[in-house]
Amino acid sequence: MLPFTKNNLNQIKQKELTPEDVENQLNIFKKGNQFVFLESAASIKNGILVLNEEEQLQLQQKYVAAVDDLKVVNFVPASGMATRMFKFLYFFKTTYNPSKQSLNAYLNNNKSHKLREFIAGMDKFPFSKQVDAELAKKGIQRTPINQYRIAFINLVLKLYGEIPKGLVPFHNYRGEVVTAFEEQLYESLHYAKSRQSVRLHFTIPPENSLIIKEFLQPIVYKISKQHNVAVKIEYSHQHPKTDTLAVNHNNKPIRDHLGQLVFRNGGHGSLLHNLNELDADIVFIKNIDNVSKRDWHEKRALYKKILAGKLLAVQEKCFQWIRKIDDGSANRKELEIFIKEELNLSYLVESNDQLFFEACKKALHRPIRVCGMVKNEGEPGGGPFWVRKNNKNSLQIVESAQVDMNNNKQKTIFKSGSHFNPVDLVCGLKDYKGQKFDLTQFSDPSAYLIFNKSMRGASVKALEHPGLWNGSMSLWTTLFVEVPIFTFTPVKSSNELLRPGHQVY
């Protein structure tokens, strides 16, 4: 056990952790990253479903017919700040010296494609008119053009660079500027409405709680009146008990100038606890930045309903089979076909009938997720793969950081992925008796990730919990369904606001 001071022990207790929890984190650092083993990429007819028009219509109708009898919530991770959106602008600000070179010379010397794209689209951003008006108040005119461009960039960073991403203007409807938060509310009306109410759950940073709640209050009122619907907003924060130690490269805890242990945010896998506290039959999950302009909402919502209908259809069959196993009426051959062909589980081969049915019931008695998958067009992030663990193959969403890229075979498999995960998930969190699953029991605690981070100019090691849709859901029943690319319109970089899904003409 580490020699914790009395203050350290109080600090640990305040986070609702124990000294043993902290020791376990240190042991994880010592063990290092445990990479997944990729068997193959999931693909069409090999783990990814393609639904025809008739199937899509049936599933959509199934969800629409059932939705008023369901507790539905749109769960939106929204804890991130906008800083990363403008990363290339921050780089420009810190590296450009106007006394030594012109802006054109900088652009040529640095081959900054993103910066060129930003400058070319300067008038097309949803925040352009606001920034332009603020510059005019300061007496900064459009000429000389390069001075204006530099001032524009600096003001964008000042206004939006250090605020929650959800508060950044995403769309401009002829003067009505709309943020990602607001667009999430409008999108939800099209697929998450149940009995004239729509419920959203935002995970937000505690330090920005007040500003976000005050910002959304009049918007909620406006939408409620416009659409005659009760808009219910819930908020939560990542729990302090999910924070993790920062350590040096000798795996010794970092301490601050007061001798206190330094903890960091445990990554989006920490949100499993937030998700676990929801009381809902159906939960839609998508990131705060994955929204589109309003005339795309309906066609995007169609595929949300299809995914939800697929969830209900599979869930219904799972529940039926569990009841048949319980009452002794389950037909083994029929159950084997369902397990293998619809749930992608081929490892349940017990010869003994009793053992087989017991194994099947365990496999059926799990939370379910249906994940939309789009064709890979070079976007960064995770994708669908067959992963081998304990001599069993299962469908998983895998990020590049989970793969040993020094292993050529594993790297090749990862690069061969045909589809991408847009974080478009529909989840069923209750069992056949209507009871909530304890989601922590269906997570893989070994699927953590260790990263090198910079802190106060020093290099440190940081630990992240298994990702929410990666290791945290690794023991769920998982289905992958192909969806069109227009269902995926994220804004990871500010320049993506110039894409068709966000430009209002």
Task: Name the CATH homologous superfamily of the largest domain.
Answer: Spore Coat Polysaccharide Biosynthesis Protein SpsA, Chain A
Shape: globular
Supply the CATH architecture of the largest domain: Alpha-Beta Complex
Per DSSP, the total helix count is 15
CATH topology of the largest domain: Spore Coat Polysaccharide Biosynthesis Protein SpsA, Chain A
Contiguous low-pLDDT stretches (5 residues minimum) are: none
| Beta-strand share of residues | 15-25%
Would you count the extended β strands for me? 20
**C-alpha Rg, in Å?**
25 Å
Straight-line N-to-C gap: 63 Å
CATH class wording of the largest domain = Alpha Beta
Structural class: alpha/beta
Average pLDDT rating: 93
Task: Please give the domain count.
Answer: 2
Q: Fraction of residues in helices?
A: 25-40%
Biggest β-sheet description: 11 strands, mixed
